[in-house]
């Protein structure tokens, strides 16, 4: 079954390092049946585009401004990303929510702006450890999801990927169990069915992220309600990442 394998480079891979990575990934994934997306830092997007053109790998970005125009020093607009050859953008990553104080309302604005420019969005949701221990994980994810999708029409959901990334599993080496991932991705699908339709809930892409590695990716991505993975640290090793991209799930 075709899955989405997404690499989030975070603040790694300089322009001077990107060429070798892109050339290697392109060569190693020619036979892949999966949809592969890499999200390098802004400064490495142009070089990634140059060396991924014509390959099986699609380009994503890690963030986008919530408005299309205006006086926004230091920001990058959705149409700029589109013009640079980017097809996907990650929105609402927990690192942006916590370190850069991004709210659900801002995440919703970013999604709308990105969709209006023809970008696809990867919307990140997930609870922290205390919320999970207090059995609030479903309520937290439901609120983030409801707020993120406010004003988004059902026909736009084909351009929306939901990434369930429990905060306690990001970069910690503690990935969620198959049971946790199964349960939350099914919960997200049911919530989308309630908000839109049964068809929408079944059709939406819901990926998992949080300490996905070469040794656990197969069991996590093979879960039927999981459409793929959003991979941080483990995507930086091109051989390992390419191996995950080549897998038949
Ligand atoms: P790690 O795979 O390094 O845990 O990061 C996950 C993540 O935040 C991807 O967006």
Write the layout of secondary structure elements.
Blueprint: E1 4-8, H1 15-28, E2 35-39, H2 45-52, E3 57-61, H3 78-83, E4 88-91, H4 94-99, H5 104-116, E5 120-125, H6 129-133, H7 137-148, E6 160-164, H8 178-195, H9 198-203, E7 205-209, H10 217-221, E8 228-231, H11 238-246
Helix pairs in contact: 1-2, 1-11, 7-8
Bound molecules: 1,3-dihydroxyacetonephosphate.
1,3-dihydroxyacetonephosphate binds at residues 8, 93, 165, 170-171, 209-212, 230-234.
Written account of the structure:
The chain is of the alpha/beta class and 249 residues long. It has one domain (4-246): TIM Barrel, CATH 3.20.20.70. Helix content is 41%, strand content 16%. It contains eleven helices and eight strands. Helix 3 (78-83) links the parallel strand 3 and strand 4 (88-91). 1,3-dihydroxyacetonephosphate is lined by residues 8, 93, 165, 170-171, 209-212, 230-234.
Relevant terms:
alpha/beta; TIM Barrel; 8-stranded parallel beta barrel
Helix-strand category: alpha/beta
Gross morphology is: globular
CATH architecture: Alpha-Beta Barrel
- CATH 4th-level superfamily: Aldolase class I
Ligand kinds: 1,3-dihydroxyacetonephosphate
Oligomer: single chain
CATH topology: TIM Barrel
Point out poorly predicted stretches: none
Task: Quickly describe the structure.
The protein has 249 residues and is an alpha/beta fold. Helices cover 41% and strands 16% of the residues.
């Amino acid at each position: 079954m075709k899955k989405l394998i997404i690499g989030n480079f975070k603040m790694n891979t300089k322009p001077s390092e990107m060429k070798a990575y892109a050339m290697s990934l392109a060569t190693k994934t020619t036979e892949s049946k999966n949809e592969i997306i890499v999200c390098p830092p802004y400064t490495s997007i142009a070089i990634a585009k140059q060396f991924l053109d014509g390959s099986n790998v699609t380009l994503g970005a890690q963030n986008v401004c919530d408005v299309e125009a205006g006086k926004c020093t230091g920001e990058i607009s959705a149409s700029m990303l589109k013009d640079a050859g980017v097809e996907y953008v990650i929105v609402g990553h927990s690192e942006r929510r916590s370190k850069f104080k991004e709210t659900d309302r801002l995440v919703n604005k970013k999604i709308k702006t990105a969709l209006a420019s023809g970008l696809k969005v990867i919307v990140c949701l997930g609870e922290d450890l205390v919320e999970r221990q207090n059995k609030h994980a479903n309520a937290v994810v439901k609120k983030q999801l409801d707020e993120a999708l406010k004003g988004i029409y059902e026909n736009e959901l084909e351009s929306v990927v939901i990434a369930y990334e429990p905060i306690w599993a990001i970069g910690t080496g503690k990935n969620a169990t198959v049971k946790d991932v199964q349960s939350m991705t099914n919960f997200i699908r049911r919530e989308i069915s309630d908000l839109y339709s049964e068809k929408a809930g079944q059709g939406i892409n819901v990926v998992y992220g949080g300490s996905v590695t070469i040794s656990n990716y197969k069991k996590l991505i093979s879960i039927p309600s999981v459409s793929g993975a959003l991979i941080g640290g483990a995507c930086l090793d091109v051989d390992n990442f390419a191996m995950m991209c080549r897998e038949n799930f």
